[in-house]
Amino acid sequence: MSTGSALRRGPFRVGDRVQLTDPRGRLHTITLAPGATFHTHRGHLQHEQLIGSPDGSVVVSTSGHEYLALRPLLADHVLSMPRGAAVVYPKDAGQIVAMADVFPGARVVEAGVGSGALSMSLLRAVGDDGHVHSYERRADFADIARGNVEGFFGGPHPAWRVTVGDLATALVDPEDGEEPGSVDRVVLDMLAPWECLESVATVLAPGGVLIAYVATATQLSRLAEDLRGAGCWTEPSAWESLVRGWHLEGLSVRPEHRMIGHTGFLLTSRRLAPGTSAPQRRRRPAPGASDETGTLVSPWAEEEFDDAALGVRGTSDKKLRRSARDAARIADAASASSSSSSASSSAGLSAAAGESASSQPGDGPVAAGGNTPREV
Protein backbone atom coordinates (compact mmCIF):
# COMPACT_ATOMS: atom_id res chain seq x y z
CA MET A 1 0.00 0.00 0.00
CA SER A 2 1.35 3.43 -0.91
CA THR A 3 0.32 7.05 -1.18
CA GLY A 4 3.28 7.94 -3.36
CA SER A 5 5.09 10.36 -1.03
CA ALA A 6 8.41 8.65 -1.76
CA LEU A 7 7.90 9.22 -5.48
CA ARG A 8 7.52 12.96 -5.00
CA ARG A 9 10.89 13.55 -3.29
CA GLY A 10 14.59 12.93 -3.79
CA PRO A 11 16.68 12.34 -6.91
CA PHE A 12 15.27 10.67 -10.00
CA ARG A 13 15.13 6.87 -9.75
CA VAL A 14 14.49 4.01 -12.13
CA GLY A 15 10.73 3.80 -12.74
CA ASP A 16 10.09 7.50 -12.06
CA ARG A 17 7.94 9.49 -14.45
CA VAL A 18 9.88 12.55 -15.66
CA GLN A 19 8.56 15.50 -17.64
CA LEU A 20 11.03 17.01 -20.11
CA THR A 21 10.44 20.54 -21.42
CA ASP A 22 12.25 21.55 -24.60
CA PRO A 23 13.38 25.12 -25.48
CA ARG A 24 10.02 25.83 -27.15
CA GLY A 25 8.00 24.76 -24.12
CA ARG A 26 6.86 21.42 -25.51
CA LEU A 27 6.41 18.66 -22.94
CA HIS A 28 7.56 15.05 -23.17
CA THR A 29 6.83 12.54 -20.39
CA ILE A 30 9.05 9.47 -20.04
CA THR A 31 9.47 6.61 -17.57
CA LEU A 32 13.10 6.16 -16.53
CA ALA A 33 14.64 2.78 -17.31
CA PRO A 34 18.30 1.67 -17.23
CA GLY A 35 19.89 1.70 -20.66
CA ALA A 36 16.90 3.41 -22.32
CA THR A 37 17.10 6.39 -24.68
CA PHE A 38 14.70 9.26 -25.34
CA HIS A 39 14.70 10.15 -29.05
CA THR A 40 13.53 13.41 -30.58
CA HIS A 41 14.23 15.44 -33.72
CA ARG A 42 16.47 17.58 -31.46
CA GLY A 43 18.82 14.70 -30.69
CA HIS A 44 18.52 12.04 -28.04
CA LEU A 45 19.04 11.70 -24.29
CA GLN A 46 20.24 8.71 -22.31
CA HIS A 47 18.05 7.95 -19.30
CA GLU A 48 21.28 7.46 -17.34
CA GLN A 49 21.80 11.24 -17.59
CA LEU A 50 18.71 11.68 -15.41
CA ILE A 51 18.91 8.74 -12.99
CA GLY A 52 20.39 10.06 -9.75
CA SER A 53 20.00 13.73 -10.74
CA PRO A 54 17.92 16.05 -8.54
CA ASP A 55 14.44 17.20 -9.52
CA GLY A 56 14.68 20.38 -11.60
CA SER A 57 17.87 19.42 -13.45
CA VAL A 58 18.78 20.51 -16.97
CA VAL A 59 20.15 17.90 -19.38
CA VAL A 60 21.60 18.39 -22.87
CA SER A 61 20.75 16.25 -25.89
CA THR A 62 23.31 14.99 -28.38
CA SER A 63 22.51 17.94 -30.67
CA GLY A 64 23.16 20.46 -27.89
CA HIS A 65 19.55 21.31 -26.97
CA GLU A 66 18.71 21.75 -23.29
CA TYR A 67 15.78 20.02 -21.59
CA LEU A 68 14.38 20.88 -18.17
CA ALA A 69 13.58 17.72 -16.18
CA LEU A 70 10.88 17.83 -13.50
CA ARG A 71 8.58 15.33 -11.84
CA PRO A 72 5.07 15.72 -13.27
CA LEU A 73 2.51 17.37 -11.02
CA LEU A 74 -0.89 15.74 -10.61
CA ALA A 75 -2.29 18.00 -13.34
CA ASP A 76 0.56 17.01 -15.67
CA HIS A 77 0.02 13.32 -14.97
CA VAL A 78 -3.70 13.59 -15.74
CA LEU A 79 -3.07 15.22 -19.11
CA SER A 80 -0.36 12.76 -20.19
CA MET A 81 -1.61 9.43 -18.79
CA PRO A 82 -3.25 6.67 -20.90
CA ARG A 83 -6.98 7.20 -21.31
CA GLY A 84 -9.98 5.01 -21.80
CA ALA A 85 -12.76 7.53 -21.21
CA ALA A 86 -12.49 11.31 -21.30
CA VAL A 87 -10.94 12.74 -18.13
CA VAL A 88 -12.18 15.39 -15.72
CA TYR A 89 -9.72 18.22 -16.32
CA PRO A 90 -7.70 19.68 -13.43
CA LYS A 91 -9.68 22.94 -13.42
CA ASP A 92 -12.89 20.99 -12.74
CA ALA A 93 -11.32 18.43 -10.39
CA GLY A 94 -9.97 21.25 -8.21
CA GLN A 95 -13.40 22.85 -8.00
CA ILE A 96 -15.04 19.52 -7.19
CA VAL A 97 -12.69 18.98 -4.26
CA ALA A 98 -13.13 22.56 -3.01
CA MET A 99 -16.84 23.13 -3.60
CA ALA A 100 -17.86 19.69 -2.32
CA ASP A 101 -15.63 20.31 0.71
CA VAL A 102 -13.87 16.95 0.44
CA PHE A 103 -11.93 16.83 3.71
CA PRO A 104 -9.21 14.54 5.14
CA GLY A 105 -10.79 11.34 6.43
CA ALA A 106 -14.03 11.79 4.46
CA ARG A 107 -16.02 8.88 3.06
CA VAL A 108 -16.60 9.61 -0.63
CA VAL A 109 -18.53 7.73 -3.31
CA GLU A 110 -17.54 8.37 -6.93
CA ALA A 111 -19.56 7.14 -9.90
CA GLY A 112 -17.99 7.03 -13.34
CA VAL A 113 -14.31 6.37 -12.59
CA GLY A 114 -13.36 6.64 -16.29
CA SER A 115 -9.57 6.87 -16.55
CA GLY A 116 -9.04 7.66 -12.85
CA ALA A 117 -8.25 11.38 -13.13
CA LEU A 118 -10.83 12.55 -10.59
CA SER A 119 -10.13 9.55 -8.36
CA MET A 120 -6.56 10.77 -7.84
CA SER A 121 -7.72 14.23 -6.74
CA LEU A 122 -10.26 12.71 -4.34
CA LEU A 123 -7.66 10.35 -2.86
CA ARG A 124 -5.25 13.23 -2.37
CA ALA A 125 -7.99 15.11 -0.49
CA VAL A 126 -9.21 12.32 1.82
CA GLY A 127 -5.73 11.02 2.66
CA ASP A 128 -4.81 7.58 3.99
CA ASP A 129 -7.50 7.66 6.69
CA GLY A 130 -10.34 8.47 4.29
CA HIS A 131 -12.28 6.24 1.94
CA VAL A 132 -13.07 6.62 -1.76
CA HIS A 133 -15.41 4.00 -3.23
CA SER A 134 -15.45 4.33 -7.01
CA TYR A 135 -18.07 2.67 -9.23
CA GLU A 136 -17.62 1.99 -12.93
CA ARG A 137 -19.92 0.09 -15.27
CA ARG A 138 -17.16 -0.96 -17.67
CA ALA A 139 -14.46 -3.35 -16.49
CA ASP A 140 -12.00 -2.15 -19.17
CA PHE A 141 -12.27 1.44 -17.96
CA ALA A 142 -11.77 0.26 -14.37
CA ASP A 143 -8.56 -1.56 -15.36
CA ILE A 144 -7.15 1.56 -17.02
CA ALA A 145 -8.08 3.66 -13.99
CA ARG A 146 -6.35 1.23 -11.61
CA GLY A 147 -3.17 1.38 -13.67
CA ASN A 148 -3.19 5.18 -13.78
CA VAL A 149 -3.88 5.58 -10.06
CA GLU A 150 -1.26 3.02 -9.05
CA GLY A 151 1.21 4.61 -11.46
CA PHE A 152 0.79 7.98 -9.79
CA PHE A 153 0.78 6.80 -6.17
CA GLY A 154 3.42 4.09 -6.62
CA GLY A 155 1.05 1.22 -5.82
CA PRO A 156 -2.50 0.54 -4.61
CA HIS A 157 -3.86 3.39 -2.48
CA PRO A 158 -5.03 2.22 0.97
CA ALA A 159 -8.13 4.43 0.84
CA TRP A 160 -9.37 3.37 -2.61
CA ARG A 161 -11.87 0.71 -3.57
CA VAL A 162 -13.22 0.07 -7.08
CA THR A 163 -16.47 -1.75 -7.82
CA VAL A 164 -17.52 -2.70 -11.34
CA GLY A 165 -21.29 -2.34 -11.54
CA ASP A 166 -24.26 -0.02 -11.79
CA LEU A 167 -24.26 2.58 -9.02
CA ALA A 168 -28.06 2.63 -8.73
CA THR A 169 -28.12 -0.96 -7.46
CA ALA A 170 -24.56 -1.66 -6.27
CA LEU A 171 -24.46 1.36 -3.94
CA VAL A 172 -27.25 0.02 -1.71
CA ASP A 173 -26.27 -3.65 -1.99
CA PRO A 174 -26.42 -5.06 1.56
CA GLU A 175 -23.18 -7.03 1.12
CA ASP A 176 -20.95 -4.84 -1.04
CA GLY A 177 -22.53 -1.38 -0.89
CA GLU A 178 -22.43 1.47 1.61
CA GLU A 179 -24.39 1.69 4.86
CA PRO A 180 -27.37 4.09 4.92
CA GLY A 181 -26.29 7.56 6.04
CA SER A 182 -22.59 6.63 6.14
CA VAL A 183 -21.25 8.65 3.18
CA ASP A 184 -20.05 12.26 3.46
CA ARG A 185 -19.76 13.20 -0.21
CA VAL A 186 -21.01 11.77 -3.52
CA VAL A 187 -19.46 12.71 -6.87
CA LEU A 188 -21.34 11.76 -10.04
CA ASP A 189 -19.73 11.87 -13.49
CA MET A 190 -22.15 9.91 -15.62
CA LEU A 191 -24.60 10.17 -18.48
CA ALA A 192 -27.84 10.12 -16.45
CA PRO A 193 -27.07 11.00 -12.82
CA TRP A 194 -30.77 11.46 -11.98
CA GLU A 195 -31.23 7.69 -12.25
CA CYS A 196 -29.13 7.24 -9.08
CA LEU A 197 -30.66 9.93 -6.86
CA GLU A 198 -32.71 7.51 -4.76
CA SER A 199 -29.70 5.34 -3.94
CA VAL A 200 -27.52 8.39 -3.32
CA ALA A 201 -30.10 9.86 -0.94
CA THR A 202 -30.11 6.58 1.01
CA VAL A 203 -26.37 6.43 1.71
CA LEU A 204 -25.60 10.15 2.00
CA ALA A 205 -25.54 11.52 5.54
CA PRO A 206 -27.79 14.49 6.41
CA GLY A 207 -25.93 17.62 5.34
CA GLY A 208 -23.76 15.60 2.97
CA VAL A 209 -22.87 17.08 -0.40
CA LEU A 210 -23.79 15.75 -3.83
CA ILE A 211 -21.78 17.19 -6.71
CA ALA A 212 -22.34 16.19 -10.33
CA TYR A 213 -20.33 16.82 -13.48
CA VAL A 214 -22.40 16.88 -16.68
CA ALA A 215 -21.44 17.88 -20.20
CA THR A 216 -24.60 19.48 -21.60
CA ALA A 217 -27.23 22.00 -20.57
CA THR A 218 -30.02 19.48 -21.11
CA GLN A 219 -28.47 17.07 -18.61
CA LEU A 220 -28.01 19.96 -16.20
CA SER A 221 -31.67 20.98 -16.47
CA ARG A 222 -32.98 17.44 -16.02
CA LEU A 223 -30.81 16.80 -12.96
CA ALA A 224 -31.79 20.09 -11.30
CA GLU A 225 -35.52 19.46 -11.77
CA ASP A 226 -35.27 15.89 -10.49
CA LEU A 227 -33.45 17.10 -7.38
CA ARG A 228 -36.20 19.63 -6.74
CA GLY A 229 -38.87 17.02 -7.35
CA ALA A 230 -37.33 14.57 -4.86
CA GLY A 231 -37.96 17.01 -2.02
CA CYS A 232 -35.02 15.86 0.12
CA TRP A 233 -32.35 18.14 -1.34
CA THR A 234 -31.43 21.79 -0.96
CA GLU A 235 -31.86 24.13 -3.93
CA PRO A 236 -29.25 23.05 -6.52
CA SER A 237 -26.48 25.42 -7.54
CA ALA A 238 -24.76 25.15 -10.93
CA TRP A 239 -21.84 26.81 -12.72
CA GLU A 240 -19.04 26.31 -15.23
CA SER A 241 -15.45 27.53 -15.11
CA LEU A 242 -13.36 28.96 -17.93
CA VAL A 243 -9.59 29.31 -17.61
CA ARG A 244 -7.60 31.87 -19.58
CA GLY A 245 -3.85 32.14 -19.26
CA TRP A 246 -1.86 35.37 -19.58
CA HIS A 247 1.24 36.17 -21.61
CA LEU A 248 3.94 37.69 -19.39
CA GLU A 249 7.00 39.24 -21.04
CA GLY A 250 8.30 42.57 -19.77
CA LEU A 251 5.62 45.18 -20.39
CA SER A 252 3.84 42.88 -22.83
CA VAL A 253 1.19 41.58 -20.44
CA ARG A 254 -1.98 40.41 -22.15
CA PRO A 255 -4.41 37.48 -22.27
CA GLU A 256 -3.27 34.42 -24.17
CA HIS A 257 -4.94 33.86 -27.52
CA ARG A 258 -6.06 30.39 -26.47
CA MET A 259 -8.00 29.38 -23.37
CA ILE A 260 -9.62 26.35 -21.76
CA GLY A 261 -13.29 26.98 -22.43
CA HIS A 262 -16.31 24.84 -21.66
CA THR A 263 -15.54 21.32 -20.48
CA GLY A 264 -18.62 20.63 -18.37
CA PHE A 265 -21.08 21.94 -15.81
CA LEU A 266 -20.86 21.37 -12.06
CA LEU A 267 -23.96 21.14 -9.87
CA THR A 268 -24.13 20.83 -6.10
CA SER A 269 -26.90 20.11 -3.61
CA ARG A 270 -27.01 18.94 0.02
CA ARG A 271 -28.99 16.17 1.65
CA LEU A 272 -31.76 17.29 3.98
CA ALA A 273 -32.49 15.51 7.26
CA PRO A 274 -34.94 12.58 6.99
CA GLY A 275 -38.55 13.73 7.09
CA THR A 276 -37.61 17.30 6.20
CA SER A 277 -39.05 19.00 3.13
CA ALA A 278 -37.23 21.63 1.14
CA PRO A 279 -38.60 25.16 1.73
CA GLN A 280 -40.92 26.41 -0.99
CA ARG A 281 -39.15 28.59 -3.53
CA ARG A 282 -40.54 32.11 -3.80
CA ARG A 283 -39.43 33.76 -6.97
CA ARG A 284 -40.95 34.77 -10.26
CA PRO A 285 -40.84 31.94 -12.85
CA ALA A 286 -38.41 32.52 -15.68
CA PRO A 287 -39.97 33.16 -19.12
CA GLY A 288 -40.27 29.95 -21.13
CA ALA A 289 -39.69 27.64 -18.17
CA SER A 290 -43.34 26.49 -18.08
CA ASP A 291 -46.18 26.02 -20.53
CA GLU A 292 -49.62 27.68 -20.34
CA THR A 293 -50.74 25.32 -17.55
CA GLY A 294 -47.71 26.06 -15.38
CA THR A 295 -46.06 22.69 -16.09
CA LEU A 296 -42.31 22.76 -16.58
CA VAL A 297 -41.29 22.15 -20.16
CA SER A 298 -39.22 18.97 -20.51
CA PRO A 299 -35.89 19.87 -22.16
CA TRP A 300 -35.31 16.49 -23.79
CA ALA A 301 -37.14 13.22 -24.30
CA GLU A 302 -36.11 10.45 -21.91
CA GLU A 303 -35.05 8.01 -24.59
CA GLU A 304 -32.73 10.52 -26.28
CA PHE A 305 -30.21 10.65 -23.45
CA ASP A 306 -27.50 8.49 -24.97
CA ASP A 307 -23.88 8.90 -26.04
CA ALA A 308 -24.71 9.54 -29.68
CA ALA A 309 -27.32 12.22 -28.97
CA LEU A 310 -24.96 14.02 -26.58
CA GLY A 311 -22.03 13.91 -28.98
CA VAL A 312 -19.91 11.57 -26.86
CA ARG A 313 -17.27 9.97 -29.05
CA GLY A 314 -16.73 6.27 -28.59
CA THR A 315 -13.35 4.69 -27.88
CA SER A 316 -12.19 1.80 -30.04
CA ASP A 317 -11.37 -1.55 -28.46
CA LYS A 318 -7.85 -1.31 -29.88
CA LYS A 319 -7.22 2.01 -28.14
CA LEU A 320 -8.64 0.68 -24.87
CA ARG A 321 -6.32 -2.33 -24.96
CA ARG A 322 -3.33 -0.10 -25.69
CA SER A 323 -4.27 2.30 -22.87
CA ALA A 324 -4.67 -0.61 -20.44
CA ARG A 325 -1.21 -1.95 -21.35
CA ASP A 326 0.39 1.48 -21.01
CA ALA A 327 -1.29 2.15 -17.66
CA ALA A 328 -0.22 -1.27 -16.31
CA ARG A 329 3.37 -0.71 -17.47
CA ILE A 330 3.53 2.71 -15.77
CA ALA A 331 2.03 1.27 -12.58
CA ASP A 332 4.59 -1.57 -12.47
CA ALA A 333 7.49 0.86 -12.98
CA ALA A 334 6.18 3.22 -10.29
CA SER A 335 5.66 0.35 -7.85
CA ALA A 336 9.24 -0.83 -8.39
CA SER A 337 10.55 2.71 -7.87
CA SER A 338 8.50 3.10 -4.69
CA SER A 339 9.76 -0.23 -3.33
CA SER A 340 13.40 0.63 -4.00
CA SER A 341 12.95 4.03 -2.37
CA SER A 342 11.39 2.44 0.72
CA ALA A 343 14.23 -0.09 0.92
CA SER A 344 16.83 2.68 0.66
CA SER A 345 15.12 4.65 3.42
CA SER A 346 14.99 1.59 5.69
CA ALA A 347 18.66 0.85 5.06
CA GLY A 348 19.56 4.44 5.87
CA LEU A 349 17.63 4.34 9.13
CA SER A 350 19.25 1.03 10.12
CA ALA A 351 22.72 2.39 9.40
CA ALA A 352 22.03 5.52 11.41
CA ALA A 353 20.73 3.46 14.32
CA GLY A 354 23.81 1.24 14.26
CA GLU A 355 26.15 4.23 14.20
CA SER A 356 24.31 5.82 17.11
CA ALA A 357 24.45 2.60 19.15
CA SER A 358 28.22 2.16 18.56
CA SER A 359 29.13 5.73 19.57
CA GLN A 360 30.32 6.38 23.12
CA PRO A 361 29.23 9.28 25.32
CA GLY A 362 32.13 11.59 25.98
CA ASP A 363 33.36 11.71 22.36
CA GLY A 364 32.12 15.28 22.08
CA PRO A 365 29.50 17.78 23.27
CA VAL A 366 26.75 15.71 21.63
CA ALA A 367 26.36 12.05 20.72
CA ALA A 368 26.98 10.77 17.20
CA GLY A 369 23.38 11.36 16.16
CA GLY A 370 23.97 15.09 16.54
CA ASN A 371 20.66 15.79 18.32
CA THR A 372 20.97 14.05 21.70
CA PRO A 373 22.85 15.87 24.52
CA ARG A 374 25.74 13.93 26.04
CA GLU A 375 25.01 12.23 29.34
CA VAL A 376 27.00 13.81 32.18
UniProtKB/TrEMBL annotation:
UniProt protein name: tRNA (adenine(58)-N(1))-methyltransferase TrmI
Gene3D superfamilies according to UniProt: 3.10.330.20, Vaccinia Virus protein VP39 (3.40.50.150)
Main function: Catalyzes the S-adenosyl-L-methionine-dependent formation of N(1)-methyladenine at position 58 (m1A58) in tRNA.
InterPro entries cross-referenced by the UniProt entry: SAM-dependent_MTases_sf, TRM61_C, tRNA_MeTrfase_Gcd14
Keyword set includes Iron-sulfur: no
GO BP term, pick one: tRNA methylation
Keywords: Methyltransferase, S-adenosyl-L-methionine, Transferase, tRNA processing
Claim: Transferase is one of the keywords in the record: yes
Broadest EC class assigned to this enzyme: transferase
One GO CC term, this protein: tRNA (m1A) methyltransferase complex
EC number(s) given by UniProt: 2.1.1.220
tRNA (adenine(58)-N(1))-methyltransferase catalytic subunit TRM61 C-terminal domain sequence ranges: 79-247
PROSITE patterns in the cross-refs: SAM_TRM61
GO MF: tRNA (adenine(58)-N1)-methyltransferase activity
Region named Disordered: 271-300, 315-376
Residue ranges of coiled coil: none
Biased composition annotated in UniProt, kind: Basic and acidic residues: 315-329
One Pfam family this sequence matches: TrmI-like_N
